[in-house]
Amino acid sequence: MNHSTFKESLYEGLEFKKPTVKSMILKIVDLGFTYSIGKEDNYKKVKFEILEAGFQELIQNSSVSKKWFAENFPNIAKTAPCNYTTIGGLMQHFGLVKY
């Protein structure tokens, strides 16, 4: 699977597992997507450029570590660290990684 196929496989309503909760893609727009966090009305956004960078890291190094995420996206790692587990959860959903 390449990045384009991965991105095109995402759809509104897609449910995926994270380490402690299930999430769902709520909305997809040109720049990224919004996903739910748990059962409350909490949500966050992920830009496709971050998803693509994670995918490229996976291809180059066979993993996407939390350290890599924090070094490459320090502001997001501080304000929305769950974006890391969302990227991993989606990669796991499509069989690209295992937790």
Folded structure, characterized:
This protein is of the alpha+beta class and 99 residues long. The chain has one domain. The protein is built from five helices and four strands. The protein has a four-stranded antiparallel sheet. The chain is globular.
Features:
single chain; 99 residues; alpha+beta; 5 helices
Number of domains: 1
Q: What's the number of extended β-strand segments?
A: 4
Please report which band the strand proportion falls in: under 5%, 5-15%, 15-25%, 25-35%, 35-45% or over 45%: 15-25%
Q: Spans of 5+ residues with little confidence (pLDDT < 50)?
A: none
What is the succession of H and E elements?
HEEEEHHHH
Largest beta-sheet details: 4 strands, antiparallel
Alpha carbon gyration radius: 12 Å
Distance between the termini: 19 Å
Shape: globular
Strand order of the largest sheet: 1-2-3-4
Topology:
Blueprint: H1 3-8, E1 15-17, E2 22-29, E3 32-37, E4 42-47, H2 48-61, H3 66-72, H4 74-79, H5 82-93
Antiparallel strand pairs: 1-2, 2-3, 3-4
Summarize the structure.
The protein has 5 helices and 4 strands. The chain is of the alpha+beta class.
